[in-house]
Amino acid sequence: MVALTRFVLSASLAGLAAAQGLQITNPSANSWWVAKSANTFSWTCNSSPQSQFTVLVSNSNPAILVSPIAIIAIESNVDCSKLITQDQSNQPASGGYRIILANPLNSSDIYAQSDEFEIKPLGSAYPSTTPATGPSATSASGAAASGSAAPQNGQNNAASIKNAGFGVGAAIAAGLAYFL
C-alpha cells in the first residue's frame, strides 16, 4: 500500500512539474559545455509562473563541487537563453554537472534542473547544432533557432528538450513521503 501511494505521488509530481513549464534545454546529456569558454544556457521561457530565478551549477561528485554554487543571482524568465562566460562558471572538466533553477530567496526551492551533463576540457569541440523546435526555439541571440551547423563565437548552441522541471510540488511530495 505504501509503495502504491508513493508511485501515485511520484506520478502526480511528474504531472505537476510538466505543468510548471520551466525546463532547461541546454546544457543536457547530449549537449555539453567546454571548460574555460563561453557556453550557452537556455530554457523554455514565458511558459512558467516563475518570473525570476537563480541559476546554480552543481556536481554529483563532492570532490568537484561540495554544494551548488550560484552563477547568476537573479535571471528574468524572458530571455530564453544566456551566454555564460568563463568567469561566471569556471568549473573543471568533468561529468556529473547539473544546472538548477531555484527561487532567488530560497535556493532549496527548485523550479527545474537539467539532465547531468559534462564540461569537456578547453579546446574540445562543441556538439553539432540541430534545429530547435517548440518553445525553446526562440532565444535572445537566435542561435538555437538558427539551426546553424557550427557554434558561433565559441558558444554551445545545441538545444535538447529532455529535462524535467521540479518545483514546489517536489518539496511538498518529499514532506508527504516522509510521513507515509
Automatic annotation (TrEMBL):
Keyword entries, A-Z: Signal
Signal sequence annotation: 1-19
Region (Disordered) location: 128-154
Annotated ranges, domain Yeast cell wall synthesis Kre9/Knh1-like N-terminal: 26-119
Composition skew (Low complexity), residue ranges: 128-151
Name by which UniProt lists this protein: Yeast cell wall synthesis Kre9/Knh1-like N-terminal domain-containing protein
Organism this protein belongs to: Macrolepiota fuliginosa MF-IS2
Organismal lineage: Eukaryota, Fungi, Dikarya, Basidiomycota, Agaricomycotina
